[in-house]
């Protein structure tokens, strides 16, 4: 009996152990991250988890996605902790709003937060009243989130109005985060027993003996997140333009044109999720156009080198940094290598296409022009000739009579009728 009781007590304790759902929010704040947060919060609510722990590292992103995500975090029935981690991570721009919306805001050592001044898709907002209006609206939202969570609202608003950026220790001293923790155990131990507001009610966090379960990004959202990487979006646009150029050079097919259009659409989706500079897009188009021009005019490759330089420069300036001078992460090693490889492949393939277009036709009806034939029945002016082992109706070019056995040359072809002329005897 005692053994059974002990087993039941252990099972009850196991069932009572609180569940902490841990998930990473890494990359640009956009539709993919927004959908992932929805899935995590829904799963945590369905499983009656005690806490959702979001490990954040982002350069910022879309205001629309940020607003939707902060609303879901504030109204979540399960308390949400946003933890800027690991060391070297950041909560820039839209990420700063996510931190302020959390029931508990935590940063790891060596991280930073802030630089939340709004920028447009091309890097800047319109000047004047519209710029001030958007900035004031976001500053008010930041103050609202911070004051709701009992943090310093004015210091938080300065991250919007002055693009203030703070390290973890500075943020803790300024009152915009609640604590600094470097690992999960330290974090859970520090917030155990704390009372927080979540979903319109006060909740006490009971995390003693909590089990932490990771919730990775789904495969579908992994693909969407991959497309929003700056280097991937740029390469998709470049490869799509190359494919469309091939379709123009070799019309009649559909594979290259269709694939090019699909790649451009996927690249455009990535651009929609990122703050970009139109100058970089122009450099991309000009670079491809210059390389095509070099092939068409039969250049020595000098223009192609300028085209590759324009592509690399476009990659450098296409994606604008987050406010405060912090750059979006672009893997220039991967990007430069991919640009060089794609450019070389394009140059070799396009050169082969160019040579084939200039080569004399040697097959089909067009290939019969300039071919020798033998007159089989007198041409006066029409008759029959033997050309490439086949009998053809033919007529003389000037209507004169040509005797059988005469060697003639095909001048042109109209349907199934050849126009020929005698071949002058070559002098020894």
What secondary-structure arrangement, pairings included, does this model have?
Elements: H1 2-16, E1 19-26, H2 31-46, E2 51-57, H3 63-74, E3 80-84, E4 90-92, H4 94-101, E5 104-107, E6 112-114, H5 129-148, H6 153-161, E7 165-167, H7 168-174, E8 179-180, H8 184-191, E9 195-198, E10 201-204, E11 211-214, H9 219-227, H10 230-249, H11 255-272, H12 278-296, H13 302-318, H14 332-358, E12 372-377, E13 382-387, E14 390-396, E15 407-414, E16 417-422
Task: Describe the structure concisely for a colleague.
The protein is an alpha/beta fold and 428 residues long. It has helices spanning 2-16, 31-46, 63-74, 94-101, 129-148, 153-161, 168-174, 184-191, 219-227, 230-249, 255-272, 278-296, 302-318, 332-358; strands at residues 19-26, 51-57, 80-84, 90-92, 104-107, 112-114, 165-167, 179-180, 195-198, 201-204, 211-214, 372-377, 382-387, 390-396, 407-414, 417-422.
């Amino acid at each position: 009996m005692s053994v059974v009781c002990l087993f039941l007590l252990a099972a009850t304790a196991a069932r009572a152990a609180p569940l902490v759902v841990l998930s990473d929010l890494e990359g640009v704040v956009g539709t993919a991250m927004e959908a992932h947060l929805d899935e995590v919060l829904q799963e945590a609510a369905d499983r009656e988890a005690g806490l959702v722990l979001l490990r954040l590292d982002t350069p910022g992103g879309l205001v629309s996605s940020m607003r939707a995500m902060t609303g879901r975090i504030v109204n979540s029935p399960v308390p949400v902790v946003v933890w800027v981690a690991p060391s070297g991570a950041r909560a820039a721009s839209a990420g700063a709003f996510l931190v302020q919306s959390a029931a508990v805001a935590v940063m790891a050592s060596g991280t930073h937060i802030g630089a939340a001044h709004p920028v447009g898709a091309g890097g800047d907002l319109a000047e004047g009243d519209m710029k001030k209006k958007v900035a004031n609206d976001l500053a008010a939202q930041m103050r609202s989130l911070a004051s709701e969570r009992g943090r310093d609202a004015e210091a938080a608003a300065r991250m919007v109005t002055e693009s203030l950026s703070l390290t973890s220790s500075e943020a803790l001293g300024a009152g915009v985060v609640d604590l600094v923790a470097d690992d999960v155990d330290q974090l859970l131990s520090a917030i155990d027993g704390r009372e927080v507001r979540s979903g319109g009610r006060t909740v006490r966090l009971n995390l003693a003996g909590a089990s932490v379960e990771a919730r990775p990004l789904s495969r579908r959202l992994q693909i969407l997140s991959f497309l929003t990487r700056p280097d991937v979006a740029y390469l998709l646009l470049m490869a799509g333009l190359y494919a469309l150029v091939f379709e123009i050079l070799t019309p009649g097919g559909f594979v290259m044109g269709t694939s090019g259009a699909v790649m451009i659409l996927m690249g455009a989706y990535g651009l929609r999720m990122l703050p970009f500079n139109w100058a970089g897009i122009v450099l991309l188009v000009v670079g491809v156009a210059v390389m095509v021009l070099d092939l068409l005019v039969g250049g020595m490759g000098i223009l192609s080198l300028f085209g590759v330089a324009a592509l690399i420069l476009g990659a450098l300036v296409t994606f604008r940094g987050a406010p405060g001078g912090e750059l979006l992460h672009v893997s220039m090693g991967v990007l430069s290598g991919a640009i060089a490889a794609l450019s070389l492949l394009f140059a070799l393939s396009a050169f082969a296409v160019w040579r084939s277009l200039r080569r004399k036709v040697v097959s089909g009806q067009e290939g019969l022009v300039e071919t020798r034939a033998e007159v089989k029945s007198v041409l006066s002016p029409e008759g029959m000739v033997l050309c490439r082992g086949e009998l053809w109706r033919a007529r003389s070019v000037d209507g004169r009579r040509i005797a059988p056995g005469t060697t003639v040359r095909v001048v042109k072809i109209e349907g199934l009728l050849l126009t020929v002329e005698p071949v002058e005897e070559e002098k020894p």
